[in-house]
Amino acid sequence: MADNIAKLELPGNDSIDLPIKKGTEGFDVIDISTLGKKGYFTFDPGFLATASCESAITYIDGEQGILLHRGYPIEQLATESTYLDLCYLLLYGELPTKDAFDEFETTVKQHTMVHDQIVYFFRGFRRDAHPMAMLCGVTGALSAFYQDSLDVNNPSHRKIAAFRLVSKMPTIAAMCYKFSVGQPFIYPRNDLSYAGNFLSMMFATPCEEYKVNPVVEKAMDRIFVLHADHEQNASTSTVRLAGSSGANPFACIAAGIASLWGPAHGGANEACLQMLEEIGSVDRIPEYIEKAKDKNDPFRLMGFGHRVYKNFDPRAKVMRETCHEVLQELKVVDPLLDVAMELERIALEDEYFISKKLYPNVDFYSGIIMKAIGIPTSMFTVLFALSRTVGWISHWKEMLDQPGHKISRPRQLYTGDSARDFVSVDKR
Ligand code: SDX
Hints:
Blueprint: E1 5-10, E2 14-21, E3 29-30, E4 58-61, E5 66-69, E6 72-73, H1 74-80, H2 83-92, H3 98-109, H4 118-123, H5 131-141, H6 155-181, H7 194-203, H8 214-226, H9 234-244, H10 249-260, H11 268-279, H12 285-293, H13 314-329, H14 335-349, H15 351-355, H16 362-373, H17 380-401
Antiparallel strand pairs: 1-2, 2-3, 4-5, 5-6
Helix pairs in contact: 2-17, 5-6, 5-10, 6-7, 6-17, 7-8, 8-13, 8-16, 8-17, 9-10, 9-17, 10-17, 11-16, 13-16
Bound molecules: s-citryldethia Coenzyme A.
The site of s-citryldethia Coenzyme A has 21 residues, from helix 16.
Pfam families: Citrate_synt
Organism: Shewanella saliphila
Keywords: Transferase, Tricarboxylic acid cycle
């Protein structure tokens, strides 16, 4: 049999030859798109073994703990690149020359302000609204303002939408925080770096000059780099699915934010800190390890495990180093870090976690760094969404650039009632 064909034997002495498609890295895929003509669909709830698309943006090898963005290892990008440099790479496929970067950065800076009417959306929220609720709502509402970015079939609309989202997400994210603490919104400052400007909008006040701490600025930029993209995760797949119907980019990103909010996904960093606070001290760790193993207990160790990584998440390794740098520089003594480090040690030696290949993931350390920087727990997933916006937009752009892309519309295994006649209420 040709090594690029999979032969599927079917009942009734039938069979079908399915083409095998090869990528540049990773698993080959069996193209099952013609299976319908034989009267069958495939069945893969949660898409554990299903490739939904062809992509050239990010490659993950879960067994080896490898993460590449356009071929560049995350370890090199996290230590030698910057978030805006990575944004250019994810969006356009190549690292920018100095001139190209300067032009890109200038354009990003020209879109950091939001329409002044956006302020009134915040007036409608309760002060104690979850920042993710506000971020999701306001991001979707951008569709009401930027009419020259809504036509997904117009390349110039797609380009300006990408810039507006990368530029405005920090501004909106900081507005969510300022609104929740009752402080005035701080305008963007184009004399600062992307991360420095975000810190300024978060922590500056009109009362005094705000100085960006270079260690915190570098840690913030690294957190953005480490969360920027991650292949076809739940929120990116949500953005692709929404975008496949032709929905405008702001609506698609709002859908991605909603999906990321879940505690099994981007909400895990917030849930991880809450878990560490609930555990409270090192001596209570064994009790929680047992809860995590108990099949009847819904408790899971937040920040552990991953659908793809069955080895250490390479982002967690970099995040762990950054965590220690920040705490050392800021002279923060955080008892939760002691709990986190002991939890990591115990979990990595425990047979249950070893057998199930459950390692700390990116969310395990990011929460501790953000807490040390002064970011409230409720804002952790907002920062994840801020960073992941460029990944979502890159996948949305890649999908629309692919000729012949179709609306995504999975099928199902129907297990409901067969056809039956209606019975009027007086006869039931
Ligand atoms: C992110 O997809 C991405 O790329 C996501 C992300 C990105 O950058 O976009 O990397 C970001 O979402 C990271 C993951 C953050 N989530 C958490 O930290 C929440 C805790 N982790 C789990 O909920 C879980 O590990 C998932 C959801 C991350 C992955 O779940 P899977 O792949 O569906 O695996 P599973 O739930 O089937 O677990 C396999 C086994 C199960 O035991 P069995 O049924 O086989 O006996 O491992 C157990 C699970 O019970 N298990 C855990 C566990 N995670 C899985 N047990 C205890 N604690 C955990 N954290």
